[in-house]
Amino acid sequence: METVDMTSVSLKRPHCEDGEANLDEIKRQKISEESSKTADGSDLKIDTVTGKSKKSLHEDTKDEIIPNEEGEEQENEELEESDDDGDAESFADMMKHGLTERDVGITKFVSSHKGFSGILKERYSDFVVHEIGKDGRVSHLDDFTVPVDNEDPSEEVFTVLSDEDKQRLEELQLFKNKETSVAIEVIEDTKEKRTVIHQAVKSLFPGLETKTEDRDGKKYIVAYHAAGKKALANPRKHSWPKSRGNYCHFVLYKENKDTMDAINVLSKFLRVKPNIFSYMGTKDKRAITVQEIAVLRITAQRLAHLNKCLMNFKLGNFSYKSHPLKLGELQGNHFTVVLRNITGTDEQVQQAMQSLKEIGFINYYGMQRFGTTAVPTYQIGRAILQNNWNEVMDLILKPRPGAEKGYLVKCREEWARTKDPAAALKKLPVKRCVEGQLLRGLSKYGMKNIISAFGIIPRNNRLMYIHSYQSYVWNNTVSKRIEEYGLKAVPGDLVLKGATAVHIEEADVEDYTIHDVVMPLPGFDVIYPKHKIGDAYKEMLTADNLDINNMRHKIRDYSLSGAYRKIIIRPQNVNWEVVVYDDPKIPLFNTDLDKLEEKPLPVLPKEGKFRALKMEFSLPPSTYATMAIREVLKMDTRASSRVRLARGSAAGEEKMAAIKVGRQLVARDPDHCDIPYYVSEFVEREIGNDRNSLTKLGMLIEELSENKRQLEEQVLTVSSEVPKRIQNALKNAEDSNKTLSQLLEEETLLSESIDNHLLKAQPWMEALDVLISQIEEMERHLAYLKWISRIEELSDNIQQYLMTNNVPEAATTLASMAELDIKLQESSCSHLLSFVRSTVQFWHKILKDKLSSDFEEILTQLHWPFIGPPQSQVFGLAAPGSAPDVYNNLETLFSQLLKLQTSDELITKPKQLPEKYSLPSSPPIILPMQIMLNPLQKRFRYHFTGNRQTNVLSKPEWYLTQVLMWIGNHTKFLDEKIQPILDKAGYSVNARLEFSRALVMLILEKLATDIPCLLYDDNLLCHLVDEVLLFERELYTVHGYLSTFPSCMHILSEETCFQRWLTVERKFALQKMDSMLSSETAWISQYKDISDVDEMKVPGCAETFMTLLFVITDRYKNLPTASRKLQFLELQKDLVDDFRIRLTQVMKEETRASLGFRYCAILNAVNYIATVLSDWADNVFFLQLQQAALEVCADSNALSKLQLGQLASMESSVFDDMINLLERLKHDMLTRQVDHVFREVKDAARLYRKERWLSLPSQAEQAVMSLSSTACPMLLTLRDRLLQLEQQLCHSLFKIFWQMLVEKVDMFIYQEIILANYFNEGGAAQLQFDMSRNLFPLFSHYCKRPENYFKHIKEACIILNLNIGSALLLKDVLESASENGTILNPNQPSATAALNELGVYKLAQQDVEILLNLKTNWPNTGK
């Protein structure tokens, strides 16, 4: 259970009338240190809130989160560092560098009672959490029974297997050994017994199947894997009854374990994966917690069986359901908390708890939200939001005061000294911490890309920092809000209506209390209070260099949307009781398990040494229970303060206990005297505020005097023994001193003897060194002679083999000699190297000449090379009977030539092209393939070099096509005859690719020769590039050539050639653009007669231009380097910009006819190009180019950190600049069109503006309402222009156009017609008829509810057409709301509510008052 002999700690506070002074006094007090010992003697750190011991600071944050755990993040800057090593200071030393409550804005209390102190979590059983489900039911463990189900196995299933059988089955299940099955002997061979064993294996070891076998007359149950590793730990689908829910729900009761640890233990015992468990929230470790868990297809019977073998766990309340549990579904948690050794009177406790129940507490974010080290998490969050990534890196990695793991300190020191992430990372044995993750990212992405490096840290941990900063701002502004306005709702505060926040108006302030008020966490999707606190938000963010109006971050993950949080939380179901006790180790109430086991309630004395407060309350999710307890105790919850207070309380209690029993107490800290404090505590405890208790003084004085006498006697006893002990100690010291002197004398003599011996041995050592040198010299000479002997031996062997015509063995021996040559390359013996190389060369030439001659003869018999196509090849048919012999000889000679490959590479240096072409390295062509290629190389050089008629610069397609034909002609032979030989010889060479590579090298040599001759002839160069691109495409697609081999693109990528290629591409592209823009069909859509295809109404020039860009992309996408591709990309962007400029020039010529066909065609073209470029931006090819551009810019520092961050996060694309310019041009052109149409509408509306609205007949006076004649010109103009532009603009452009036009028409009619006239009843009705029956329907073809786009007109018509009674009521409401901001009649609705009820949302109160004054049909009321 728990360590009962652990020193308890309490929370003591000095008494002070003023709570604020109290806080200041606490902050000024020193932090004292204390360590306690466990039973095994290990050092423990004291957690001063919980009163528990800790071995590592890094456990403190998690255990200190007492509140409702759901909705809270694990606010620990280090990622679960598990080991306990490190030369750490005490907990109190570390906390000297921590935060105070004032640092994070926690400064206010809501209650006026006097605080007191107490011990929280002296035992973990003093803190009990019961989960509250989404149905409002509190989870309790009150039933161990298992649901009855005929499908469940018998209880014998869990005991029939022995421990040894279970061990073997588990190893089989987890693939821990090489066995494929496990056999279990059936001792009692009955069918029932075998059935139980079958059920036991299948139930306890998912993934295993069983069968019965007879072996030597005995029955065995054999277990084996059903479906390999995929079946491991998966629920057995076929064994689960269909009538039963898939999920077994149960209540988990756990002690001193957090939820994830508990799940891992259960999964281990059940032999399943943890991810089949689900729950609604995680629970604290140092507590007793009760929560609901669901598990997929595990029977209640199996779960209940775990109660027999698990410690600190109990499972019960089983039921089967068809759904799992989901995180966050709970309503909250119910807490039962015991504060031991409280100092407050019953009256103080009553006041504190009554205040908590009726008022509640400030919903601050607790101290654990901001980290436990000297660098608060909110500072890192602020740096992230400021985009100051260097500061983020520095704050996380720099050395910091306070205690840390030893390896973390070394890591930070290494970082500060070297700024080398790899070196600092080596200091970390635990790489999962934040520092380790960041250093790993910096090692991977470099110091110039901190954003990507920081992105390696898990997302939840990164978001923790910015959430901490939001909490920091919220705490500070809430404290200012309470200081400024107190505990009442005021105008300008925010309250929630549903999920939407609205401001409290002056008229509504009495409808709300402080419990309704919320405050925003800063973000882009929240609104702020309309009083001083709204300005306080802005000032605080501005001081941190943040813009309150722009909380969107360049990196989407770090954009703050914001949220709303209640200022005051009032706990529910609050109950409390003060109890007394003597033994701090006994429980003060019964848990669920105690009740199930029918343990009696703890017997408490009527009068005890200590008093405790037992309190119960329920909290919603995302609420800190520490803040509720802070409000009760009026305590500072920071850890450093609690350490000091706890030490004082613990020491005081121990001394008091010692006095009571008359035993001696040795002071823990000799350098610090707390006697005055102990005396005051003692007097306060024994006497208190009751004057009648003064009668006890005589008895107390006598008792204390007796204790003093006993202590003096003990001191005298000790004093008489001390001299004897000192004498013995001095004698022992003298003896030790003598012994040490003797040892020193012996050491001196031994040292002198050794020096003399070394001096005598010096000549011997020198002579030995000379002999060793001579021996080494002889060994080198001997080794030299052995090498020569070995070479001569191999040479003699080759000679003998050749004399006996044993060519294969000669070739093998030469290969061995070539390997010797390679081994000797690092030798400094130049003559030896020359000897072996000349020997290899001599025999290589002899063997190569002989084998080459025979090989060429075989090739001739096969009619090699094949000039015709594959179907006409007739190799080896001159003598059909001898074909097998020919192919056997081919294989033999080919294999023997392969053996000469090593020596050939040593002797023959392959021809290399100049380095400027940057060809990739590739191995030499294998020797037999060189011989096979000789006739083709001769043909190529004969026809395509020198003065031959076939060697023409303007016809590169001749030699390119010839090479492709050769490759195609020989493919079949190479695959069928040569490839098997290579495979048999163990060569990982593809014969067809080797053949192609050799021929391509001929092409490269040819191109390297020809390109300088045609470099400045644009037509010839363009033709060459076209042909090369066609050649490459066929080479790759048809013949499977590899991109890692040298290719023609490497030649074209040479700097001079490439720049000329770019120039030619640009020249011809510009010519094409001139041609397409001057064409008669430039502005006519190619698909104008096909409505489905012509949705974007793309003019021909735009279609042709984008096709041109696509062709250019296809031409350069196979370039070997990213830098060359990026240069082509810049060319494309230049062409887009040039085309945009040309379109702009043409547009300016058409400005006067902004509604004309050509102007609209230009607008469609701009829109189409921008749309296509946006689509291309998401193409994989251009995304790869974006990454390449990022790497280039990062190396050259060409872009700002912000731009690099945008590229790295893929928020921008390579075409963004072009798209933005095109979008701007599109907007300008649309604006011109809208302005043009609007001017025409205004001109047509002149008569309508002068309509006699004041004297029009009412609706009752007219038989049928009809459109005003003066409105016809305006509406006809609108209709005609809309129809015209609908035909000429694409759908997306036309939608933008009519919405922009509607906005201008709405304001024009509202301001120039409605507000400029007075209306009688008939005028108002006529206006509404004209608008709702004529104007709005013009746009009904484009949207379902056009009136929603004419908000001003629509709402003005509502106001003007109100009947007299409604108008008078509305006028009274508006006038009442305007007078001093108060409501005259409490039952009368607010102005906003009244307007909303009428359907008015857009118009302000002042606008409605103006409209009401435009009505002329008011009755004469005498006002």
Automatic annotation (TrEMBL):
Residue ranges that the Swiss-Prot or TrEMBL entry lists as coiled coil: 694-750
Stretches the record annotates as Disordered: 1-90
Biological process per Gene Ontology, one example term: tRNA processing
UniProt keyword annotation of Nucleus present: yes
Alphabetical list of Gene3D superfamilies matching this protein: Dsl1p vesicle tethering complex, Tip20p subunit, domain D, TruD, catalytic domain
One GO MF term attached to the UniProt entry: pseudouridine synthase activity
Residue intervals of the TRUD domain: 360-570
Major subcellular location class: nucleus
Biased segments, Polar residues type: 1-10
Location within or outside the cell: Nucleus
InterPro entries with a match to the protein in the record: EXOC6PINT-1/Sec15/Tip20_C_dom2, PsdUridine_synth_cat_dom_sf, PsdUridine_synth_TruD, PsdUridine_synth_TruD_CS, PsdUridine_synth_TruD_insert, RINT1_Tip20, TruD_catalytic
GO cellular component, one term: Dsl1/NZR complex
Keyword vocabulary terms for this entry: Coiled coil, Isomerase, mRNA processing, mRNA splicing, Nucleus, Phosphoprotein, tRNA processing
Cited Pfam families: RINT1_TIP1, TruD
Ranges annotated as biased composition (Basic and acidic residues): 14-46, 56-65
Family: Belongs to the RINT1 family. Belongs to the pseudouridine synthase TruD family.
Free-text function comment from the UniProt entry: Pseudouridylate synthase that catalyzes pseudouridylation of RNAs. Acts as a regulator of protein synthesis in embryonic stem cells by mediating pseudouridylation of RNA fragments derived from tRNAs (tRFs): pseudouridylated tRFs inhibit translation by targeting the translation initiation complex. Also catalyzes pseudouridylation of mRNAs: mediates pseudouridylation of mRNAs with the consensus sequence 5'-UGUAG-3'. Acts as a regulator of pre-mRNA splicing by mediating pseudouridylation of pre-mRNAs at locations associated with alternatively spliced regions.
Assembly and oligomerization: Interacts with SIRT1.
Full protein name: Pseudouridylate synthase 7 homolog
Taxonomic classification: Eukaryota, Metazoa, Chordata, Craniata, Vertebrata
Gene that produces this protein: PUS7
